[in-house]
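Hey team,

Filing this mostly as a record. A colleague (T.K.) asked me to run one chain through the structure pipeline before their review meeting, and I want the input and output archived in the tracker in case anyone asks later how it was produced. No errors, nothing strange. Just documentation.

Input sequence:
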Amino acid sequence: MPTTTSAAGLTTGHAPFVESARNRGELYISQPYDEYSKENHESWQRLFARMQPRWERYANPYFLHGLDALDLPHDRVPRLADVNRRLQPLTGFCARPVSGYVPGFLFFDCLKRREFPTTITIRPPDRLDYLPEPDIFHDVAGHVPMHTEKWFADTLVRFGECAHTAAEMTAGIADYRERVAKLTSLMRAMSRFFWFTVEFGLMRGHGPGGICAYGSGLLSSWGELAHAIDSDQVQRYPLQLEWVVNQVAEIDHYQPILFLVDSFDHLFSLVDEFERWMRQGRLFNVAPGLPDIAETDLRSFLDAA
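Output structure:
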């Protein structure tokens, strides 16, 4: 007779295995593969099948190469051990299963160590179009194929190093309120930069109108991927650092403004420039507004220092 946990599967918001781990304070967990239900595998299969034509039309070629290199299954949720066996020899990255939200500094520190925090639950079949929180389809099918590309993988490591710079730079500020204000501004700048590149970035080159997608938020969304490139309601601009760090990032609708890079070595150079601006104090007063900086994220940076 199956256990209650097995019957419940690993559905986002309804996964006793994950909830128990979270209640025990366990952030890094295993992927209990046998817990996936038939419905979970069907969700993956439906998501993958409908995304394939859109990937072929809109995704950057490095993403498509990554899909081939990882040989992700079409009909079932992938085993992270299989994904990592193919991924690690290419760039040193691995997908590390987590029980849920990873506080800001810990997330970026994982990237610095070439570990990508990966959710193991999958969205329910009646919510395939949109889920506000990440699931394994977003993380593995949206993010991880990009981790097979050297320049992109190295860029993620540089993002992780920037988080360490932010924590170290503000650690010596004696006045607590000043320290929190400056750290909050740095965190907001990092979050916006990451949002408009790693999550919702566009690149010149292959694709309609000479534009393709590399951001995982686009590559895991059937609707927004096409909208980002084809719609005349989207404004697309070359990525300018001073603009991106001051641009409000919202999660509850399609992005009206997106930014283009020329290549991944271009993106890497922009992260280098971002860290220089950080060290020069040029990011201590970015524009207020979304994203809000959660107390757990702020505390993770304060504790890291």
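Quick notes for T.K.: Residues 31 and 292 are 31 Å apart (CA to CA). The longest helix spans residues 176-199.
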